[in-house]
Amino acid sequence: MDASPRPTPPDLEFEAVPAPIRLRPSDPTEHQRVVVNPFLAVLAVLAWGELTHRLIDGPFPPLFVLPILGLIFLPLLVQFHCLDCGRTGSYPLRSRHACPGVLARSRLAEAPRSRLPSARGQLILWAWAIGSVGLLWLVAA
Ligand SMILES: [Zn+2]
Q1: On the CB side of 88, how many CA atoms lie within 13 Å of its CA?
Q2: Is-contact 125 117, C-beta < 8 A?
Q3: What does the alpha-carbon distance between residue 97 and residue 89 come to, in Å, rounded to a whole number?
Q4: Interior angle at CA 47, CA 42 and CA 49, nearest 5
Q5: Entry pTM
Q6: Rounded Cα distance, 30 and 32, in Å
Q7: For 29-88, how does the pLDDT look when each residue is reduced to its tens digit (9 = 90+)?
């Protein structure tokens, strides 16, 4: 009777155990395909300007401070639109959005195939464009 030797388990006390491989946690925002839409925030700024103007000309001018407090929420009015699932949300909360398309790209560590600039790049381009138009409007007025 020929008994084959059983494989012996490694003796963890004497053999070096390789350190576990730690993968860098992937940021889901790197794998999103989104379009940034600032028009709701622009509309809010226009309404804010008109309201502030009316309050300054009104019977109690110190009330103009109240709309300034509303500007705290202005970044929440900048929206993103996901090209994978079609969901629209608030731009500051974009990092919480992980639909199946984003998760699949995140697992594969695949960059999104899109000709659009990154969401942050789109926001900067919008800021430049809207700031330029606003500056021209102020100069012309
Ligand atoms: Zn999505």
Answers
A1: 8
A2: yes
A3: 9
A4: 95
A5: 0.68
A6: 6
A7: 888 899 999 999 999 999 888 888 888 888 877 777 777 888 889 999 999 999 999 999
Question: How far apart are alpha carbons 47 and 42 in whole angstroms?
Answer: 9
Whose CA is closest to 35, among 107, 120, 129? 120
Q: Are strands 79-82 and 34-37 parallel, antiparallel or unpaired?
A: antiparallel
How far apart (Å, rounded) are the C-alpha atoms in residues 52 and 45?
10
Give residue 94 CA to ligand 1 midpoint distance, Å: 10
- What distance in angstroms lies between residue 33's CA and the mean position of ligand 1's atoms? 8
- Ligand 1 centroid vs 82 CA: distance in angstroms? 5
Ligand 1: centre distance to CA 128 (Å): 26
Three-state secondary structure call for residue 32? coil
Report the separation in Å between the CA atom of 101 and the middle of ligand 1, taken as the mean of its atom positions. 7
Say how many C-beta atoms besides its own lie within 10 A of residue 82's C-beta.
Answer: 19
Query: Domain residues of the chain, as ranges?
Result: 37-77, 81-111
SS3 36: strand
